Every structure is written in C-alpha cells, then in structure tokens.
Amino acid sequence: MDTEAQPTERDRSSRPSASGESPEPQGPEERSRFALVARVTDWLPGGRISLTVLICLVFLLLLSTFVAQPFQIPSGSMERGLRIGDRVLVNKLAYRFGGGPRRGDVVVFDGSGYFGDGDYIKRVVGVGGDHVVCCDKEGRLQVNGRSVDESTFLYPGDSPSTVPFDVVVPDGTLFVLGDHRGDSSDSRDHLGSPGGGMIPVGEVVGRADWIVWPFGHWTHLRRPGAYARVPAAAPAGSGTGEPRDAGGAHG
C-alpha cells in the first residue's frame, strides 16, 4: 500500500470531528469502491498517480474513437486552406445523428480500395444524385446546372480542373476534389476505376471542423457559401443522362 497515504489515513481517523460527533460508518457499496481503488493502486507502479494517468489515457482513447480525432495534413492537395503539417480536428459525430455530408464540407475518409491505402482529406463537391460537370463556358464547375464560384478556396492560379468530366453521383456516395486541383489525386483520377472515383458515405470518418496546430493557423473550417445556390438533385430518370467517361487522369 502507498506508504505516504497510511499516516494520513490514521491521522484522519483519530482526529475528532468539529461537532464532537463520531463520523458515520460508510455503507457497504462505498467501502467496496474504496477497497477496489486501493487494490488497483497497490497493483500499479506509482500508485494513484499511475491510476490517474491511465484514466486520462482511456478517456482520450474513447474521445478519439467516438467523438473527435486529430489528423495531420500530409500533402499540399488541400492548399491554400490546409497546409502540409497542419493538424485538423475531425468531428466524428457530425453525421451520426441524421444528415450526411453536404457540398462544401471538408471530410476525412478511408480511401482503401478506392483511392489507395489510408485516410484522405478532400472537399465534397457532389452528393448522391448530383450531376457534376466540368466545365461551363467560363471554366467553372457546374453542379445540377448551377455554376459554382470556387475562387474563395481554390488554390491561386488553379483552374477547377484541367480534366473534363461529366458524372452523376450514385446515391450513398460522394464526389470529392482537393482545393489544390493541380496537386490533388481525387475523384477525377479514378473515373475509370471500380466505383468511378466515388467514395461511399459509410467510409467517411468525419468532418474536419478545426485547424488546431500550429496555433498561429488556428481556424474554424466553415462550409463555403459557394454551393448554397446549387439546387437539389433531379429525381432519378428525369433526363439528367448517364455520366460520360471523360478519360485521362490528373495528378
């Protein structure tokens, strides 16, 4: 038992109460709980300090597994907003209680079997049923017939895409692009692959809500207003047409 704790317990038990009355005996449940804690602290090297550290680690593990998880940005595919080495905090509860990813959200997803092994971070451009085309006469991305001005987040000097495409996003999947289109491997590069470059919603880990490191780059990642005027997808079979394979890939 912790030798430093023993005198404290003896002093406490022998000291009379301020009111002169003897302390009430503890109930059996309370005695059992303290006995269990005492056994654990006796078993752990370091006693109560080690137990406190262990509890904190378990709490952080549960938090990372079910609530929020930090991810490091490994490449420049999401510049200018997310730079190499930035740490983002991913909200794992964002889509757990109704509602799915929306156009403009920055999401982390498991790309195994779709893009390659590991997790990826991209911006959602099209959701299930959307008709996504690049590009209109002015070189802008078009979703459900509405041109989208991506200038607020697109990497300076980049065009929306140097690879033309015309796709209809299947239900339950997402069409995703990097903000640095000239340095992003995304849905465009896998149009001819199994799955057509689409990411199942079920593979989404969560929504990137904050840049938390470095402190000088601390930012709340908000959904841009560029997609606010995009109309809802047309019902299936309403004449949107089948996606055309644009061919080629963009590194």
How is this structure best described in words?
- This protein starts with a helix and ends in a 31-residue tail after the last strand.
- Strands 1, 2, 3, 4, 9, 10, 11 and 12 form an eight-stranded antiparallel sheet that branches. Strands 7-6-5-8 form a four-stranded antiparallel sheet, with no helix packed on it.
- By secondary structure, it is of the alpha+beta class.
- The model is unreliable at 1-25, 56-66 and 239-251 (pLDDT under 50).
- It is built from three helices and twelve strands, in the order αααββββββββββββ.
Q: Summarize the biggest pleated sheet.
A: 8 strands, antiparallel
Number of helices: 3
Helix content: 10-25%
What is the terminal separation in angstroms? 62 Å
Order of helices and strands: HHHEEEEEEEEEEEE
Q: C-alpha Rg, in Å?
A: 27 Å
Shape: globular
Any idea how many domains? 2
CATH fold-level topology of the largest domain: Umud Fragment, subunit A
Distinctive features:
single chain, 251 residues, alpha+beta, Umud Fragment, subunit A, 2 domains, eight-stranded antiparallel sheet, four-stranded antiparallel sheet, disordered N terminus
Write a compact overview of the structure shown.
With 251 residues, the protein is α+β, with helices and mostly antiparallel strands.
Helix-strand blueprint:
Elements: H1 5-14, H2 28-43, H3 48-66, E1 68-72, E2 87-91, E3 106-110, E4 119-126, E5 131-134, E6 141-143, E7 146-148, E8 165-168, E9 173-177, E10 199-200, E11 204-213, E12 219-220
